[in-house]
Amino acid sequence: xxxxxxxxxxxxxxxxxxxxxxxxxxxxxxxxxxxxxxxxxxxxxxxxxxxxxxxxxxxxxxxxxxxx
Length: 68
Ligand SMILES: [Zn+2]
Fold this sequence. Notes:
Helix content is 49%, strand content 12%. By secondary structure, the chain is mainly α. The protein folds into two domains: 1-34; 35-68, no CATH class. The chain has a three-stranded antiparallel β-sheet with strand order 2-1-3, with no helix packed on it. The radius of gyration is 22 Å and the shape is rod-shaped. The mean pLDDT is 79. Residues 40, 42, 44, 56, 58-59, 61 line the site of zinc ion.
């Protein structure tokens, strides 16, 4: 009887962990897919990107929207 209870508890905990990990992964993918990325057209910050429109702090050109 104790073995059955232990096995049920392990299964329950395992399911909780699996569900948590699964939801985190899904949320991360959705955020990445919807995220807009902006980058200096001259790339003077070595690939640095921004998540909003603006100007490059180095050359002051308008940031260009790019595909992630
Ligand atoms: Zn720049």
